[in-house]
């Protein structure tokens, strides 16, 4: 199968491209980070790529970790970037009627978050076109754009470079973490079962285990001895709102890699 991966150089996209190639599939990449002309905000820019593909993985989005979202998600540029890239990409998907998966987030029901609202809009587009929406939880893997890095990469680099993990919050908020390799396997399986999936069921891609931000810091400190200083604030992005994942996806797939194992993998790749 020939896959088109929109957002192919991102944390999930890069791992997905590698995974699909390992599984013997042809992969077309598309990402503004790789080629400045591959800008989904430009009308018509992606049409020929979608027409050429058999299946589209729509991962592209202007997004980052909690620090990035706290700083940018309420800005005009953030909202405009994501609105335009969705309009043009969904229009192309409508024109060529290709099967596709849209990468949403478990935050899509959090109406106080512009990021969540944008993802909810993408889900509506996807539903209208008969595509599949997946809701990512906290997917992590090696990251190179440090401005947009997520908590695990951020903590590893702080421990390695400064011997001190400073936290934005008090660390009590809990997340469900999933390595990008497990996520990639889930996406491939879902694409292969595209016509069998119940569109009334939600597809949550997560590891179904709650772990606190402080626990992440402690795991890293076992590998890289360092001090940990929690902040004073509570959850500043999700405002302590806690969703519960739908287990429907476990009929087709299950995660295999533990948080501790994957933190060790990321350490080897980025330090």
Description:
The protein is an alpha/beta fold and 271 residues long. The chain has one domain: Rossmann fold (3-Layer(aba) Sandwich), CATH 3.40.50.720. Helix content is 41%, strand content 16%. It contains nine helices and twelve strands. The strands form four sheets. A six-stranded parallel β-sheet has the order 2-1-3-4-5-10, with helices on both faces. A two-stranded parallel ribbon has the order 6-9. Strand 4, helix 5 and strand 5 form a beta-alpha-beta unit. Helix 1 (11-22) crosses helix 7 (180-192), helix 4 (76-96) packs parallel to helix 5 (114-129) and helix 6 packs across helix 9. The protein is globular.
User: How many strand segments?
Assistant: 12
Q: Structural class of the helices, strands and pairings?
A: alpha/beta
- H/E element sequence: EHEHEHHEHEEHEEEHEEHEH
What number is the mean pLDDT? Answer: 92
Secondary-structure arrangement, i.e. CATH architecture: 3-Layer(aba) Sandwich
Q: Order the strands across the largest sheet as they lie in space.
A: 2-1-3-4-5-10
User: What value does the Rg take, in angstroms?
Assistant: 18 Å
Major sheet size, sense and barrel closure? 6 strands, parallel
CATH topology: Rossmann fold
Total individual domains:
1
Assembly state (oligomeric): single chain
Q: Which CATH class applies here?
A: Alpha Beta
Can you tell me the CATH superfamily?
NAD(P)-binding Rossmann-like Domain
Distance between the termini: 35 Å
Uncertain regions spanning at least 5 consecutive residues: none
Strand content: 15-25%
Number of contiguous helices: 9
Helix content: 40-55%
The dominant shape is globular
